[in-house]
């Protein structure tokens, strides 16, 4: 017997039951831009984006415009307001041409969350605490319902490094990982040496016959070494690749997630 559909009312009611304070933050604006999931894959990726537009309304208008042919499942405004645009059972159009760990149809196996932020084109800025706190709650709920492993919480630039920069170097992946969402190993973690191209490929990035290109290296750095967007395999980047590879492969034990409200123990950008 097939499991019941995880449609919008069920998801909303479950969230409100467990987190009643979310109710006044929840809005629905159905987007026509979606289709059936294909390939028979389970939902096993949570993909994070920034909107890259001047404001929330511009982003919502575009995500709901049939001519734009783009959408996402959820949008979170900077004040923590959640907008539900596409049913999780449907294939939202957010990843575009992409690749991760052998898969190219990322849309069919992912949930997409857009975070309101002007992006690099319109005045890129940090993501406010209200937005990050709501993201953490929603992400944990999605991961639990779909059994998405923390290793498969990714940024748009991870799966489309030649085209995308979001959510970008100001996104606090360390803070999120400290709450059990995503992987972000300590900068002090020990890891065995490994050829960087092989490690990046095993992490999930698409690597050609000539090894990792500049765009892929920068995408990795945006996520895991955000104060060094050099695009080169320097010593620090190679060490970081080895640390992330070890964590992704389960060879480094991740710390227990922090309870809500606790700050991460380690500054992700020491010296800044």
Output the radius of gyration. 18 Å
Give the N-terminus to C-terminus distance in angstroms.
54 Å
Mean pLDDT: 90
Query: How many beta-strand runs?
Result: 8
Low-confidence stretches: 1-6, 261-272
Q: What is the approximate shape?
A: globular
Q: Tell me the helix content.
A: 25-40%
Structural class estimated from helices and strands: alpha/beta
Biggest beta sheet attributes: 6 strands, mixed
- Count of helix runs: 9
Please write the string of helix (H) and strand (E) elements.
HEEEHEEEEHHEHHHHH
- Strand order in the sheet with the most strands: 1-5-4-7-3-8
Explain this structure:
The chain is an alpha/beta fold. It is built from nine helices and eight strands. The strands form two sheets. A six-stranded mixed beta sheet has the order 1-5-4-7-3-8. The chain has a two-stranded antiparallel ribbon with strand order 2-6. β4 (74-76) and β5 (82-84) form a beta hairpin. α7 (196-203) packs parallel to α9. The radius of gyration is 18 Å and the shape is globular. The protein starts with 7 loop residues before the first helix and ends in a 24-residue tail after the last helix. 41% of the residues are buried.
């Amino acid at each position: 017997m097939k499991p019941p559909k995880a449609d919008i009312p069920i998801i909303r009611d479950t969230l409100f039951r467990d987190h009643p304070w979310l109710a006044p933050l929840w809005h629905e604006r159905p987007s026509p831009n979606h289709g059936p999931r294909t390939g028979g894959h389970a939902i096993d990726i949570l993909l994070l984006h920034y909107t890259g537009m001047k404001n929330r309304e511009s982003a919502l208008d575009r995500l709901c415009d049939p001519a734009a042919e783009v959408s996402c499942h959820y949008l979170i405004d900077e004040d923590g307001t959640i907008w539900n645009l596409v049913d999780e059972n449907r294939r939202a159009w957010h990843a575009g041409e992409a690749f991760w760990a052998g898969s190219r149809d990322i849309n069919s196996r992912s949930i997409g969350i857009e975070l309101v932020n002007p992006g690099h084109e319109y005045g890129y800025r940090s993501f406010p605490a209200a937005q990050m706190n709501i993201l953490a709650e929603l992400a944990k709920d999605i991961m639990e319902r779909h059994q998405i492993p923390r290793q498969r919480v990714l940024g748009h630039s991870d799966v489309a490094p030649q085209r995308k920069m979001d959510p970008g170097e100001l996104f606090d992946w360390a803070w999120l990982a400290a709450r059990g969402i995503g992987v972000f190993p300590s900068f002090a973690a020990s890891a065995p040496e490994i050829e960087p191209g092989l490690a990046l490929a095993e992490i999930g990035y698409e690597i050609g016959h000539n090894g990792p290109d500049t765009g892929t290296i920068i995408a990795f750095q945006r996520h895991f070494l955000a104060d060094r967007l050099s695009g080169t395999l320097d010593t620090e980047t190679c060490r970081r690749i080895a640390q992330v590879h070890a964590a992704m492969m389960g060879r480094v034990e991740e710390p227990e997630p922090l309870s809500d409200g606790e700050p991460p123990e380690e500054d992700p950008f020491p010296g800044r």
